[in-house]
Amino acid sequence: xxxxxxxxxxxxxxxxxxxxxxxxxxxxxxxxxxxxxxxxxxxxxxxxxxxxxxxxxxxxxxxxxxxxxxxxxxxxxxxxxxxxxxxxxxxxxxxxxxxxxxxxxxxxxxxxxxxxxxxxxxxxxxxxxxxxxxxxxxxxxxxxxxxxxxxxxxxxxxxxxxxxxxx
Length: 167
Fold this sequence. Notes:
Blueprint: H1 16-39, H2 42-64, H3 70-87, H4 92-99, H5 101-107, H6 114-138
Helix pairs in contact: 1-2, 2-3, 2-6, 3-6, 4-5
């Protein structure tokens, strides 16, 4: 009988730690955005905020779907960011922004093409961080298929070759 794993996994195969890290990341990004607005203005605040907006969406995507790969999470965050930006070509976000501060913060009001680039920067940052965190956790994850030097995929020693080496 197999021994139970010490690490509980969610239904999607991700550990609860992934959700906790994503929640802390989302709060940190909100804090960074507020801090950026407090100390900077002009293009730095605007475009930095655009990148942080997509980074926040990335963290929220991972929070909702912790088993998602960093590439898919970044793609979803980028698609959402671009979708909101292209929605600004209509009058809907501008009208909602007049009625609600929350709508103004989430939807914006006017289309600005350079924002699309900065959303991609935020998605790339999310992918990079997600990739680094997942790669670092890979060695500790139960069932990880990380290959050890001198072993087969299963982690068992390889049988010796004809010359006696274990390539």
